Every structure is written in structure tokens, then in C-alpha cells.
Amino acid sequence: MSRSWDIKRAADALLAAEAARKHRSALTDEWPGLDLANAYRVQDEVVSQRVEAGESIVGMKLGLTSHAKQRQMGVSSPITAWLTDGMALNSGVALDTSELIHPRVEPEIVFVLGESLEGPGVTAARAMKAVSHVYGGLEIIDSRYTDFRFRLPDVVADNASSARFTVGTRGRRPEELDLALEACVVKINGDVIDSATGTAVLGHPGEALALAANSLSERQIGLEAGWLVLTGGMTDAVPTVAGDTVCIEFTHLGSITLQCA
Ligand code: 0L1
Ligand code: MG
Predict the structure, then answer these.
(1) Is the pLDDT of residue 2 over 80?
(2) Is 2 within a domain?
(3) What is the four-CA torsion angle of 118, 212, 214, 210, rounded to 10 degrees?
């Protein structure tokens, strides 16, 4: 670890960038020795400061689960991050873009866990047994780094660019759907921007859930009953600005419309 950087200072720098809505340079530019283990410690410190400020943990998300996202960001492995109630945007509530730096939206398949799930050794089939309901979701990411330019430890420390998320209102039991085939279309102001199916998420979103349970177990973290899990963006993240209407239409999970103010 460099002399001038430590876990607390890095977490404070990221929280300050978020509060001021000002992007900053990647931590690894100044702290080249930041490795993944310490990056997750920074992420945990960021979330514990949010909890101290009154937020509650409501689940976890995966990031970089699709090849499209890995290519877009120039990184090569999925990551996990925390979700809090402070990030939740109720369906129908407008996104205030002035609270964010440079938001991007992405469609997600969201699980609600009916039972706890803890690795190691969790398979996708075992993971899906812990899922009580599946929803369509929309995540708004907002990297605290200039131009979303980062290395893997940077984005891990930055809680995987988490900013806001909305969960749709049409929940389905997992056995009612083939999630590999579940499709979504992303529209901005009525124009189709992108589309994908659940195969984009590691072949099946259940694989992402299993990966989350197994990788979190290395940090002695278990997924808890009642938690939400955002399984990862199905398409590239799409930049959005005030005035945009974003609509994500799923085949069987309904649609979510987000007005950006
Ligand atoms: O796009 C990014 O900022 C990478 C972090 C992961 C975001 C996500 O897939 O939710
Ligand atoms: Mg995401």
C-alpha cells in the first residue's frame, strides 16, 4: 500500500466525488498498488459510511457480467457491489440527473431471494432454488471516475458505479420463465437503442447469482433472504440526460419507464 493512500482515504475521496457530483481521476493513477482485496475493503468502507448516515443494505448487484459490458469497460471479470435503500428509485419517480455526474442506464434481471444463499460450491440450479421472484429492473450507474475510465480495482472500490435502481412491478416465479430467453428492448425517447436476452448475463442470470454467492463467500458474506440481487446489465449502458424518457420493455416481466429530469 502506498504511504499516502489507505482504505479510509480512498473511500472518503469517492464519497466526496459523489456528494459534489464531480468526477475524479482513477484511484489507481495515484495508488497503483491498489489490488482487488483492498478495493473490496474500500467498497465496504464506502457502504458502511452510507449505513452510518442512515441507509440500509437491501441487497447486492453484479457488474460486468456481460461480454458487452466487459468489452465496453475494457475489463474481464464480473464484480459484486452493495445496494442500499438510498439508491432505490420507486417506479414512476423521475430521475433527478442534477444529483448525478454522468448517468447511464442498463436493463437488468432482478431476483428477490426467498431464502439465504451462501457459497462456496453454489451452482446455478441451487441458486435459482433460493429465488422467490424475478422482476425486470433498470439500473442507473454513475461512475465517480472521469469518462468512466477505470481499471478493475477502481470500479470495485467505487461500488461498481452504483447510483440508483428501479425494480418493475410485475414479479414472476422463476419456474414460470426461461430466463435465458427473457428478452428486453431499451428505448430512449421512443427509439430502440439496444436489445438483449438473459443469455447475455453469463449465459443465464442464475449463473450470475451463483457467482455472487461463491465470490462473496470468500469475504465471509452470505446473501440474505429478502435481499434483491441485480444480476448485471444485459446490454451496454446507455448515457442519459435530463429530458430523456427511458423505457425498458421485457418479454414477460413488464416494462419500466423512467423520466429523466
Ligand atoms: O459500467 C460500469 O461502470 C462498470 C461497473 C458495473 C456496472 C454494472 O454492470 O452494473
Ligand atoms: Mg448493472
Answers:
(1) no
(2) no
(3) 80
- Ligand 1 site residues (CB inside 6 A) read 61, 63-64, 69, 73, 139, 141, 143, 148, 155, 160-161, 232-233, 237
CATH of the domain at 212: 3.90.850.10
Mutate to test the pocket of ligand 1, among 69, 105, 165 (most ligand atoms within 8 A of CB): 69
45 within domain boundaries: yes
Domain with 235 in it: 7-260
Model-wide pTM > 0.90: yes
Q: Percent of the chain scored above 70 by pLDDT?
A: 99
Q: Mean of the per-residue pLDDT values for the chain?
A: 96
Return the minimum-mean-pLDDT range out of 69-73, 170-174, 196-200, 249-253. 69-73
User: Number of folded domains in the chain?
Assistant: 1
Residue 1 lies in a domain: no
* Helix %, strand %, coil % of the chain (to 5): 35, 30, 40
**Which is the closest atom of ligand 1 to the Cα of 75?**
4
- Range in 26-40, 63-77, 169-183, 240-254 with the lowest mean pLDDT: 63-77
Residue 211 and residue 65: Cα distance in Å, rounded? 10
> Could you give the CA distance from residue 115 to residue 118 in angstroms, rounded to a whole number?
10
Show the cell assigned to 140.
442507473
